[in-house]
Automatic annotation (TrEMBL):
Cellular component terms per the entry's GO annotation: extracellular space
Protein name as it appears in the record: Fibrinogen C-terminal domain-containing protein
Annotated InterPro entries: Fibrinogen-like_C, Fibrinogen_a/b/g_C_1, Fibrinogen_a/b/g_C_dom, Fibrinogen_C-term_domain
One Pfam family it belongs to: Fibrinogen_C
Classification via PANTHER family: FI21813P1-RELATED, FIBRINOGEN/TENASCIN/ANGIOPOEITIN
Boundaries of every Fibrinogen C-terminal domain copy: 1-68, 69-275
Region forming the signal peptide: none
UniProt cross-references to Gene3D superfamilies, sorted A to Z: Gamma Fibrinogen, chain A, domain 1 (3.90.215.10)
Organism field: Magallana gigas (Pacific oyster)
Domain of life: Eukaryota
């Protein structure tokens, strides 16, 4: 909600200006359930207070802070981070002597490092080679970790990879691979992937095994065309691809022969690796 005052009505009430009528400037919806800004100090309140009924408040305080930071600069991966905290989130580790922010996810008894995610649709993914090499996006939302970083971690034994997907009607499916590796720059960041299990239906990723990465400005696929350029989908493209995760159009994300046996748009996609 937008903020409203007696002289600026931004609330959703169709009949009154809540801030003016009740004397309570706030981020009002259809008026408010938080009475913190009234001039009458004896009329402050919080809707359905813990007693289940109205009680006058005598003290109120609102505070902000940065997210809880765990000192992880001495860590080189999410396993180390997981030994210090059970909270999933963004952490700064040291990789090749340099600071690197990563998203560590602690669940199922494992410490995963998320290498790719799309959940908001606010980041464009049809990017050039250097962007995919170095990484881009926002770790708290949509991002690509960077091929050079994925190479380092997969070479260090982070070789189990899991793809998690949710479609437009809320079905969740996953594809897990027991072998996952991304080569170095000289190999074109060649993909090695095998050992599928999961609920995603068709194994749409293994057909990309052995392929170099391609972008609109670097064509490494086997097609007569540059698939990344023509379809706007940078990937380890073979003769174009069966995985549509990197289109700019967030409504066009897809996994070939999804569990339904037909195409259904995906609204959430995540790739994560672990040892």
């Amino acid at each position: 909600m937008k903020f409203s005052t007696k002289d600026r009505d931004n609330d959703l009430s169709s009949s009154i200006n809540c801030a003016s009528y009740y004397g309570e400037p706030w981020w009002n919806n259809d008026c408010s359930r938080m009475m913190f800004t009234r001039n009458n100090f004896n009329d402050l309140g919080w809707y359905n207070w813990y007693t289940g009924s109205y009680k006058q408040l005598s003290k109120i305080r609102m505070m902000i802070r940065k997210p809880l930071i765990v000192e992880t600069s001495g860590c080189s991966d999410c396993d180390c981070v997981g030994s210090l905290t059970t909270e999933s989130g963004i952490y700064e580790i040291t990789a090749d002597g340099n600071p690197l922010q990563v998203y560590c996810e602690m669940n199922d008894g494992y410490n995963w490092m998320v290498i790719f995610r799309r959940i908001k649709g606010d980041v464009l993914f049809n990017n050039v080679w250097t962007s995919y090499e170095n990484g881009f996006g926002n770790l708290d939302g949509d991002f690509w970790q960077g091929l050079k970083h994925i190479n380092k971690f997969s070479a260090a034994g982070w070789s189990v990879m899991r793809v998690e997907m949710e479609d437009i009607v809320g079905y969740y499916g996953y594809a897990q691979y027991s072998t996952f590796h991304v080569g170095d720059a000289s190999s074109g960041y060649r993909l090695t992937v095998s050992g599928y299990s999961g609920t995603a239906g068709y194994d749409a990723l293994s057909i990309h095994n052995g392929r170099k990465f391609s972008t609109k400005d670097v064509d490494n696929d086997l097609s007569a065309i540059n698939c990344a350029l023509k379809y706007g989908s940078p990937w380890w493209n073979n003769d174009c691809g069966l995985v549509k995760f990197t289109l700019n159009d967030f409504n066009g994300l897809g996994w070939y022969n999804w569990h339904t046996g037909s195409y259904r748009p995906l609204v959430r996609v995540k790739m994560a690796i672990r040892k």
